[in-house]
Design a protein that fits this description.
three-stranded antiparallel β-sheet; 46% helix; globular; 6 strands; mainly alpha
């Protein structure tokens, strides 16, 4: 069964970068009256920006604004309040327009939604990942005409066929298959607790040995120079971001939430609060001396309001935190322009910093503290898995 798109999220048409033409943000929404996708264009505020940098920054704000409205259920068309789609596996507010009431409340979808409710205390990203995987299984059931069946009708062979599809057609990795299995077991066990089924059908599944390595790789020194040259030229805020990651071993979430007040410009440290880390203790990261001087004199962070986010919206510090995926998308744009390997990701800068620390013979215990690891053993495993074994003796090897 073909699944119709409801919304195509906002994008920018920059008219090829021509400032003499009207730039606009556009998106598409299905009109429930005609059942056709209709394109909406938004020109507001963009034409008042005189430079390309200003327009791109304003466009990013507009894209975020309309994306949030659309995901919250806003539509340019009249809502039909009688139409309801009652589950968390779909985008609940948008589904108010396009969904329909389910004939049975004992479907897989019903129990999957109950399962999502039961884990509401987890990280938002984790819940989103779980929901996405459960939604994929529900969509697969839909293609087989089984999505409206009572969960008791989902026998072992159906589950087996789904995992064969994941392995052979979708080419999912062993680790991903394991995660799907754990999630489905959790949902079916919930159905057992509610006495809707007696036995979990998730057992004796196809074996997957495929290893898909999508982990970020450290950026090599020569490539790093090319990256920084173009980044500093086109996106200075991204340049500061990757330097925090490289020099201070900070994670993307920590950098995104960083406020000026976290930085001790005298002691040369950054204190990440426990509420951001979701741990019992604050984390302290050391700022290398040269980078500390840049924060003071080049980036002038000491002059900012202490409550400001270092990385705010509009590509500058401010009171509003920047979008979650903003930096990743901007880094990918630079990477594609340089025709660099896809293994280089935004998180590669932290691995690159660790690689340089390894080559400089910085003690393992210091790297453990800087990474925020719980033990040296964790750092040893991280070093082996993320950056490999760096043969320090070869630093003086005479190349040809």
């Amino acid at each position: 069964m073909k699944r119709n798109k409801i919304v195509i999220l906002p994008k920018l048409n920059d008219r090829g970068g021509d400032l003499n033409k009207k730039w606009f943000v556009y998106f598409s929404v299905r009109n429930p009256k005609t059942d056709k996708m209709e394109r909406i264009q938004k020109f507001k505020h963009l034409h008042t920006c005189k430079t390309a940098i200003e327009r791109y920054a304003k466009a990013e704000e507009q894209i975020l604004y309309w994306t949030e409205k659309l995901k919250a259920g806003w539509t340019p068309f009249d809502n039909d309040e009688s139409v309801i789609y009652e589950d968390q596996l779909q985008y609940s507010h948008i589904a108010n327009i396009y969904g329909r009431k389910r004939a049975s409340n004992k479907t897989f979808r019903f129990f999957a939604s109950k399962f999502i409710d039961s884990i509401s205390g987890l990280e938002k990203d984790t819940i989103s990942t779980y929901s996405s995987k459960l939604r994929i299984f529900d969509q697969w059931l839909d293609t087989k005409g089984l999505s409206e069946c009572d969960i008791s009708a989902l026998e072992h062979q159906i589950i087996y066929d789904f995992f064969e599809w994941l392995i052979n057609e979708k080419k999912r990795s062993r680790v991903t298959i394991k995660k799907y299995r754990q999630l489905l077991v959790s949902v079916f066990e919930l159905a057992i607790q509610k006495k809707s089924i007696r036995v979990c059908p998730v057992y004796s599944l196809p074996v997957c040995t495929r290893e898909v390595d999508k982990a970020p790789r450290p950026i090599q020194e020569l490539d790093m120079d090319a990256f920084l040259k173009l980044i500093d030229e086109k996106d200075p805020q991204l340049g500061l971001y990757v330097r925090f990651e490289f020099n201070c071993f900070l994670r993307p979430k920590e950098i995104r939430h960083m406020r000026v007040k976290w930085i001790d410009f005298a002691a040369g440290t950054i204190t990440i609060p426990r509420d951001v880390l979701k741990t019992k203790h604050d984390r302290i990261s050391v700022i290398p001396r040269e980078f500390l001087m840049d924060l003071r004199n080049k980036y002038k962070l000491m002059e900012l309001n202490k409550q400001s986010f270092v990385f705010g919206r509009g590509r500058q510090p401010g009171t509003m935190i920047m979008g979650k995926n903003s930096m990743r998308k901007r880094f990918v744009s630079i990477r594609e322009e340089l025709n660099m390997p896809e293994e280089y990701k935004l998180y590669s800068w932290k691995h690159s910093g660790n690689l340089r620390a390894e080559l400089m013979d910085i003690p393992m215990i210091d790297r453990t503290y800087q990474n925020g690891h719980k033990s040296i053993k964790t750092t040893e495993v991280y070093t082996r898995n993320k950056i490999g074994r760096a043969g320090n003796a070869f630093k003086k090897f005479e190349s040809i």
